[in-house]
Design a protein that fits this description.
Layout (H helix, E strand, L loop, with lengths): L16 E5 L18 E2 L6 E2 L11 E7 L2 E7 L28 H16 L4 E21 L6 E20 L5 E9 L4 H14 L26 H4 L3 H20 L2 H7 L2 H6 L2 E18 L6 E16 L4 E9 L8 H12 L9 E7 L1 H15 L2 H5 L18 E6 L20 E6 L2 E2 L6 H8 L4 H5 L3 H7 L5 E2 L14 E2 L3 E6 L5 H8 L2 E4 L1 E7 L7 E8 L2 E4 L2 E5 L5 E6 H6 L1 E4 L4 E3 L7 E4 L2 E10 L9
Parallel strand pairs: 12-19, 18-27
Antiparallel strand pairs: 1-7, 2-3, 4-5, 6-7, 6-9, 7-8, 9-10, 10-11, 12-28, 13-14, 13-18, 14-15, 16-17, 19-22, 20-21, 21-24, 22-23, 24-28, 25-28, 26-27
Amino acid sequence: MAARRPTSSTSGRGRSTASATSRARARFRSEPSAIAPRRFPSPASSSSIERAPTPWPGGPATSCTSSAGATSASSTRGCPVGISTATPWRARTSPGHARESRVTATELAKAAQDAFAFVSAQPGVTEVEVFAASNATLLTRLNYTSHIPSNGVEEPKSVASRGLGLQVVFAGPGGGASIGFGSEAADLTVRGAERALAKARQAAVVDPEFVSLARPTSRQARTLTNYHDQRLMALDDASLVESGWRVVGGGLRTFLASSRLAELAGSDEGLRALGLILGGDVTVLQERVALISTAMPRVQTDESTLITAFVTAMVEARQAKGSGWSTGTRLDEFTDEAGVEAAQNAVASMGGARVPSGEYTIVFGRQPVTDLINNLVVPACMASSFYSSSTPFLGRLGRAIASPRLNVYDDGAHPGFMGSKGITCEGLPTGRTDLIRDGVLVGCLSNWYETQRLLRDPELLTKLGAQGPVAEGALSPRNGFRFGDGGGRQFDNQPSVAASNVVVEGADPVSHEELVRHVRDGLYIGRIWYTYPINGLRAGDFTCTVVGDSYIIRDGRLAEPLRPNVIRINDNIANILTNVVGVTKDVKGTIVWAADEVVYAPEIAVSRVRVDAIAGFMEELP
């Protein structure tokens, strides 16, 4: 976690939230199927019968419950057999339930301007930064089980927030200064600004490391404007539900089209008894922000949208699990990819084997690469980690920390990437920050506050490994964001350091098939969980559990699946980075649990990775 300024707010951090479950009914339109419904021979006769009714029924069934004034609607709808390939979004023609009207960017800009004028005129105020935000997170949860009655798509809901956040510098006795932060939920008027100012004044402290609020730099101008998707920004409840059914439908079509499952099941009843499971969510984020400050007295606004899906599929009777996900910024690019991929991976992982403890050459799939980047590499590359001497790369700027095959950079202004923003939450332009180039540490993720205090640290050379222009270039403040729990740039958070779009590339990339052939004998690890540093970040030691999508590599091919939850990886991030032996060409936007950033990750082969077998006692259980 990035270190935060030693200031506090007495605002109670009570974000203005309006949470409501969707009243839209699921409307999954049956499309022409390229595959006829699967027929199983009847145990009572030699004739074929149509598939019997299953827990994915052919007609809609909607149930509603009420709790504490909120209405929760759950719907089920039949899913036809269909082709197991990604199908594009098709626009709805009927209107859905409209949510509470959102604050426009123009209204936010006016609110920020009015608050700035009011606070700037108050006695004792020397600097002020006003941040106004109006965000909404829309989510529909996926929950299908073939052997237990389920709704398929559940809990379509939204959480909205809006308000003002003020960072204020107050003149102190003897020329000193103090800085305080205060926020006010819901009220975007001058009265709201007045209350936020009172909280900031009450919370103000003298911070000896504080230099100033953010100042504009001449290094880079804003490049990303008008990049949000209007359709996602105006998404109605019915379309939110339909997006969930699109993903569930892709997974179910893939299950039903599987010849392996058909052979195992033998009948409709047998198919249901295999325990086919689809779980996950579709999430949409809508952001509008406005910012103005003493150093940047012209209001800046920014609007962004994103849509993600993450699915875990299981064939429970065969202890098989698979994952699938998608990331994007536009509704017309959203497909059933996540459901299709998860179901395919679950079927492919049936019949998993165990492996003994030892050192292996491992091909890390995109999710493990992302998990390692999110939990180890990104925190280690933050300016705050160098300031606190808690990074494994302490004093290594300009020195090799990884294989020369490896490049890692963050680009918050890349068009079309899910984590892109036009400006930071300090009003500065986003852009590209190289972190590792040809294996050498060349930059850090930073915001204005962290850059200023590290550049003025008497131990800068020891902590960073450079000083002067080299240090200044490595500490460009392109990553000051106010991300909060659940995503979005939140008005009641102060800027901290966060990545946006982390891109991992290889110097000599190859195809997936070529990488596996090069490894010849080893493991392909497709999904890990609970990745964390076990002796503090600076030591670099970490552990994680392999939980799915993994295979044994034998003679240059994926020979057989690896059973979930039977091995842990216990190693050091320095070993992982330096022992890279190959990287694939293709990258995919990948998200992991509770991450602020999206990682555009390839597959990476690493030699001499320590693996420990676990849960052996499970083999002896009845």
